[in-house]
Amino acid sequence: MPTTILIEELYQHFLNANNKVCTDTRNLIKDSLFFALKGNNFNANEFAQKAIDEGCSFAIVDEEKYATSNKIILVPNVLKTLQQLANHHRNQFKIPVLAITGSNAKTTNKELINAVISKKYNTLATVGNLNNHIGVPLTLLNISHKHQFAIIEMGANHQGEIDELCQIANPNFGLITNIGKAHLEGFGGIEGVKKGKTELYKFLKTKDGEVFINGDDDVLHDLAVNNDKVTYGCKKLYDVIGKDFTKTETVSFKYTTRYGEKDWNKLPQINTQIIGNYNFINCLTAVSVGHYFKVEDGLIKEALENYVSQMNRSQLVQTEHNTIILDAYNANPNSMKVAIENFANYPSENKLVLLGDMFELGEYSTNEHQMIIDLIIEKKLNSTIFVGQEFFKLNPTEFKTFKTTEECKLFLSQLNIKNNTVLIKGSRSMKMETLQETL
User: 315-438 belongs to which homologous superfamily?
Assistant: First the structure.
């Protein structure tokens, strides 16, 4: 007979399973709880019995016909149950939980902050980009009594999603990296993005939480006017004040604090391995969080100097023939713009730009892609190749344009390109990183 259950009872099963859960029968974890999630093209309810047969302690389903034994627990909604379990588990811990969202650089900020905070605290951070309605609860369920700090990345493509994730994660600290032209189709324009992202500020206000805020960002400053905040930036006397000393492709900077040393000549310089001066503010964000939580200056410097970017995010790749700035994990109009502007200032004679389409822009897509073409012309980056249907239909006659990444890859393989500095950027689905094989 099927078993129904309360969250408190399910939580006991979770503890008995040594805090192990799984959602994919292709990667079952012995003795874990199996949550039979549904998607557009799958229904894991169908595999509940298989999960039990292969060693899971219990399976959680939401269709009665699949609840065929007392080890298969019937609930109204498997996803909601997973989220409720994660919230219940998170609330067992009185530790700082920092939520990070924003249009650009969420993962970069998460990784940098994690590098800094981990120097002093046992820290749990979102793995990869598990930042949605499934990834956030799965991350929260990994909190254990050894952890002293949690960093939870939150992604969203429509209004209401950040609030939903906050209700699950119950953060007491928050960071919005920036607000820009990402997921415009789902949010309904830039004003929709503002409303969606600042759901984090509103949640923290109700919980007496604090936000870390780039005070130089007028939009964020205005939206957080009613929040308790920790400030950082370059233009005023913030809690943390930074100064960019970047002279090469990697970020170098110094920082001080509101009551600290103000003679920049006396302050140590942090020389990172991070590409692009647009990452300076991301480094300063990590400094701000670290300083607030009393990570020593020497450890902050060590963390940021040793951090190496991965997963196609602002990576410097040296091939046999060329230097590549690989920033192909994702793209939207804001991140594309700063990458181009940064690359335009590079001290290199031979520059090649490979740009792929930006997705999820809806009715704004044509205009935003045209603005990128116009920026390339303005910056006189004449050796540029555009890839993707959106760029192709605009037919920028001054440049080579291909409908697909494979077509571009074939073209590049015939050129024998050498001694170039190459910027590669585009949305994830474009798989622009594959072009480096030809360089």
Answer: Mur ligase, C-terminal domain (3.90.190.20)
